[in-house]
TrEMBL record:
It comes from Dethiosulfovibrio salsuginis. This is UDP-3-O-acylglucosamine N-acyltransferase. One of its GO terms (biological process) is lipid A biosynthetic process. SUPFAM superfamilies: Trimeric LpxA-like enzymes. GO terms for molecular function: N-acyltransferase activity; UDP-3-O-[(3R)-3-hydroxyacyl]-glucosamine N-acyltransferase activity.
Length: 337
C-alpha cells in the first residue's frame, strides 16, 4: 500500500508541510527510520531526532525546527490511524475447514471462516463475516455475532453470547465456572456452588490472550460494549463492566464487582467483590479498590485511596528513617550531662 503525502494527511485529519507529492510506502519506528517511510513521533524529542529527509507526523508547534511532514492535533490518534492504513491484510480461507466439527443443528453463515480442528456444538450460531481460527471451541447454544474474530485456541462455553466486531485473542476462556465453594464440616471439605449463569460480551469488545471471563452464578457476567481487556486478566462471576473501559494486564475483578463507563484499571490492580468503581475513574497500577470509588476519581495503593493523598503518604514514609535518626540524636543530646 502506498499513499501520496497529501492523501495521507487528509486521512489523518492533518495538514501537509513541505512536499505534498512525496510517496509514502511504509511506516517506520523512530529508532529505525527508512527511505520511503513516514514516522509518527509521540514526543518533541523523538520528532527532532527523525532524519530531515523523511516525513514525520507531529504536533504543529513542533515544526519550527523542520519543514517536511504532517501536523496533527493528536499524535496518538494519528499513530493508530497510520498503522491501520499500513496493516498487512490477510486473505481468509472462507468456508469450513474439512477437519472442523460442526453439529448438524449449528447455524454457520456462508461467509464465515471456520479454521482447522474447530468445534461448533449443538444449537450454536456463528453470524456473517466471523472468523474462527484453528482449534476454537464453541459450546452448546453459544452465539458469535457478525465480523468477530476468535484467535487460535479460544474456548467459549455453553450459552455464552459473543457480540459483533469482537476480538478474542489466543487461549482465552469465556464462560468457565466462577469460583464458588462453601467450606463444609467434616470430611466433605468444600461444597461447590453450581454456576448456572452465562457471559455476554457486547459489541466491539476485545479480550487479550490468556484471559478468563467466568460465567455468572445466577445471571450473567457482562463486558460492556467497546471495553478492552489486556492479556492475563481475570473477570470473576457476575462482574459487570460499563462501556469503553480499559482493563490492563493482570487485573483481577472479584465476584459481583461493577465498573461503570470509561473506567481504567491499570496493570495488576484489583477490585474487591461487590465494590463499584464510578464512571471515568482510574485505579492505578497495583492498586486495590476495597470500597466504592467515586466517579472521576484517581486512586492508588492498597487499600486504594485518593492518589494525591497516597503520594503524600509515600513521601512522608521515605523521610521516616531520616526523621528517626534525627530524633535519636536529639535524645542523646538531651541525656548528656
Amino acid at each position: 500500500m502506498e499513499y501520496v503525502l497529501s492523501d495521507l494527511a487528509s486521512r489523518l485529519g492533518g495538514k501537509v508541510i513541505g512536499d505534498k507529492s512525496y510517496i509514502v510506502k511504509s511506516v517506520a519506528s523512530p529508532d529505525r527510520p527508512e527511505d520511503g517511510a513516514v514516522v509518527v513521533a509521540m514526543t518533541e524529542k523523538v520528532f527532532k531526532d527523525v532524519p530531515l529527509h523523511l516525513p514525520v507526523v507531529g504536533l504543529e508547534s513542533w515544526f519550527s525546527c523542520r519543514s517536511f511532514g504532517i501536523s496533527v492535533p493528536d499524535t496518538r490518534l494519528a499513530l493508530a490511524q497510520t498503522l491501520a492504513l499500513f496493516r498487512p491484510t490477510v486473505e481468509e480461507p472462507w468456508g469450513i475447514d474439512p477437519s472442523a466439527v460442526v453439529h448438524p443443528t449449528a447455524e454457520v453463515a456462508e461467509d464465515c471462516c471456520i479454521g482447522p480442528l474447530c468445534v461448533i456444538s449443538k444449537g450454536t450460531k456463528v453470524r456473517s463475516g466471523s472468523v474462527l481460527r484453528a482449534r476454537v471451541f464453541l459450546g452448546e447454544d453459544a452465539s458469535v455475532g457478525e465480523n468477530s474474530v476468535l484467535e487460535p485456541g479460544v474456548t467459549v462455553y455453553d450459552r455464552c453470547r459473543i457480540g459483533s466486531n469482537v476480538i478474542i485473542h489466543g487461549n482465552s476462556v469465556i464462560g468457565a465456572d466462577g469460583f464458588g465453594h462453601i467450606p463444609a464440616s467434616g470430611e466433605r471439605g468444600t461444597v461447590k456452588i453450581p454456576q448456572i449463569g452465562s457471559v455476554i460480551l457486547e459489541d466491539g469488545v476485545e479480550i487479550g490472550a490468556c484471559s478468563t471471563v467466568d460465567r455468572g452464578t445466577i445471571g450473567d457476567t457482562v463486558i460492556g460494549a467497546g471495553t478492552k481487556l489486556d492479556n492475563h486478566v481475570q473477570i470473576a462471576h457476575n462482574v459487570v463492566t460499563g462501556k469503553n473501559c480499559l482493563i490492563i494486564s493482570q487485573v483481577g475483578m472479584a465476584g459481583s464487582s461493577v465498573i461503570e463507563d470509561r473506567v481504567i484499571l491499570a496493570a495488576r490492580s484489583g477490585v474487591q467483590e461487590h465494590v463499584r468503581v464510578g464512571e471515568g475513574a482510574t485505579v492505578a497500577a497495583c492498586g486495590g479498590a476495597t470500597r466504592d470509588v467515586p466517579p472521576g476519581a484517581v486512586v492508588s495503593g492498597f487499600p486504594a485511596r485518593d492518589h494525591r493523598s497516597e503520594m503524600r503518604k509515600e513521601a512522608l514514609l521515605r523521610r521516616l528513617e531520616d526523621l528517626f535518626d534525627r530524633v535519636k540524636r536529639l535524645e542523646k543530646d538531651r541525656v548528656r550531662p
